[in-house]
Records
---
Amino acid sequence: MPAFQRLTRADLDRLTRAELQDRIEKESAYWDRKCRRGLSETDAAAHREFGEILHAAIDPGASLAHVREYLETGRDNGYWDQRPGQR
């Protein structure tokens, strides 16, 4: 049993990106270790699900827009305070 609670799609609606960050790091480390040993089909499906959740949480386009706006104007557009599932 992992020493963390796996992320779910519901977490994207419930938590902000800042709140998700620590959980993403812990689950990512878990999958890094697990992938070295090989994955069962069930684990591979769970790993793919984590990848999809990670991509939704980070949202590369929104992240880049946040950085660009901050560098150009010095204003924080609230990217880290947003819930990824609540667009």
Note: The chain has one domain: 9-75.
---
Amino acid sequence: MPTDPTSADPARARAWPAPAEVWPQPVLDLLATGGDRPVFADGDRIVTAAEMSALVRRVAAGLRAAGVGPGTGLALRLGVTPEAFAATVAAFAVGARVSGVRPGLTPAQQAHLLGSAPGPLVDDARLAQLVDTGDDGRPLVAAGRPGDVARIIWTSGSTGNPKGCAQTYAAMSAAWSPYPDRWPPAIADLAPRLDRYLVFGSLSSQVMLEYGILALTAGGTLVAARPPGFPGMITRHRATASVITVGKLHQLVQAQRADPTDLSSLRALVVSGSPLTPSRLAEALDVLGPVVFHGYGQTETGMITMVTPAEMLANPTALASVGRPPAVTDLSIRDAHGRPAAEGELFVRTPAQATAYWADPAETADVFTDGWVRTRDLARLDDDGYLHLLGRARDVVIVNANLVHAGPIERVLAADPDVAEAYVVGRPDDATGEAVHAYVVPAAGRTPDVARLRARVAQALGEAATPKTIQPIDRVPLAPSGKPDKRALTSTGPHG
């Protein structure tokens, strides 16, 4: 499918119909009518739909009693438990503006997040109190107002502080997960495989929750990974599906080659984060079988494209792509002047996309333009409609599916008295998909302390941003333009 020149015209942008019901009403209905069907497994504990519905009702009653309702900010800092899932659904059910506090943030980043989107915090201790609340007997009907912000999904924080992608109740209500009649072909292929879907990390994760709701809609069960880690958690829980990063996928493939374990229950691995090369995809399909789904999306947009195992095994072109977009998703490829192009920067429109960055009008204006989301990724579409990623229009490294921006790392390194200049590049990494590598020009008469530099970055920006290597260089190579040539640094490789 070649680029449609008219798709770049905001005046001709798609107008999606208003949703018939407000999120999370389909989930409330599924739980209320599910009876003894298991929906959440945590070790030996099995929670049925009826029990989960009762949990949601009690937490919702407690939230309402505390004054939480439509438009109220609410932060969730919770693990992966049946109660945490109930709290997530209940927070949406009462119409709150839900902000998830994910693991791994520095104290400063966490303070920034909680201060930027004020509201009461629900942690494990507070959740235990809410669960003990009695059912108030009120009908549990989704109370969110379509134009209100339903959730703030925070980015990795590699720019120093996380950015919050604000998604409205109207957008969440337009999502495909709880509606089988909306499932794109790739999702319709994936859904039946989610019989025992592993949940780990945080239910505030956009991907974890999205595929969790898909699993429940398809009749599956959410399974808490205790403890997480591939391949053990697949065999331990007889899991049929999971989300996996590029680095973890490579490690799993290598582990299966060296010491195979029983993965016969596995039917789907949804790969997210860094782009995956065709050779790595082919190897994964060969070793693991036809279970790998390669997806592409962003926090701002949700899923943009996906390619199924069957497509990749049948078509080498598909293997080299990130898949095709659903019919409801618009893609526009533009040159540096915003004109339609065969290759260029990718702009996207999805029904469930965010509308802004929370409390950041400047960044909002740069990324959310006339109903489109600027991905800052370079791409092209082939004649069969498959999307091929060509690189990035932004200077980032994707570490374990987290965007790590080079600029803030360079500024932290250059602030050290032993460093005159600092440059950061990314390289493929078997463990993390990509890894951060830094080059520093020493200040006159100084010898940079690599361990101290790494510690400075970790303290300021978090572990994901910490360079794997830091190499002193006499001077940075220059491009013909006279600007630093990071591509030349990338090609030299680390030497220390």
Note: The chain has two domains: 5-391, 396-492.
---
Amino acid sequence: MKDHLSVSDELLAIERILKNRFHPIKPDQRFVGNLRSRLENSPIFLKQRRTAYIFITTAGGLLFGLIIFLIGKELLQGSREA
């Protein structure tokens, strides 16, 4: 147990040393915003977005069709039993 605590204390000490030595970088927000807009408007990103919309629409249509099919099947089985 003592070994476990000493290793933990050593790791905490290393973390403190590294934190004091390396300060986080704070990028210019204009640069970040410009980069974000360029990436979001890139042709590859737009193509991926269109493909995702097509897949979601197709999946939704298939799910809706399956639900209609199952409801119709239940209605037909119910009318045959009556």
Note: Residues 53 and 64 are 16 Å apart (CA to CA).
